[in-house]
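Homework help board

Subject: predicted structure for assignment chain

Our instructor gave us this sequence and asked us to write out the predicted structure in token form, then describe one feature. I got the tokens but I'm not sure how to describe them. Can anyone check?
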Amino acid sequence: MKMIHVVAVARNNVIGDGNKLLWKIADDLKFFKKNTVGKPVIMGRKTFQSIGMVLPGRDNIVISRTANIDKEGVFVVGNISAAITLAQSCAEERGADEICVIGGGEIYRQTLALTDRIYLTAVDAAVEGDTTYPSLAKVDWRIEQIGSCSRNERNQYDCKFFIYDRISRKSAESPDN
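My token output:
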């Protein structure tokens, strides 16, 4: 079973600012949906709140020590280890071969060492924000650009879509559980 990250990152590594969506890129939303539907998604409480809804067609696993979310399709767990265990079980039930981490910054940091693949949207903008994606050691990843989108009425910025496949764990750190 592979653990993957699905993330959109600005040129300055910013991925978020409070609970605001930093850009409107329809092609990125399609890329996100394509890579997460039918799979369990792990996220932090703030990410869940910023999405504002249960993501359909996915098991929504929210990591929080305090949140009381009573919505169909949402599971709340207290830590990364519990989230991963539950996601693996959900993936097996669905016949999925990947579990998805979709944010936020701290959840990405804590799971990066365990991550096998990253579906990354590189947004051609430098934006202000309070949350960043961890830096990646290029030596650990085989990187392939698989598409792009141009700025237009549906896409606020130009972007490129990449798949990062792990080839080494030399610079990976252990997750903080």
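Reply (TA_rk): Your tokens look well-formed. For the description, you could write something like this. The chain has four helices and ten strands. That's the kind of observation they're looking for.
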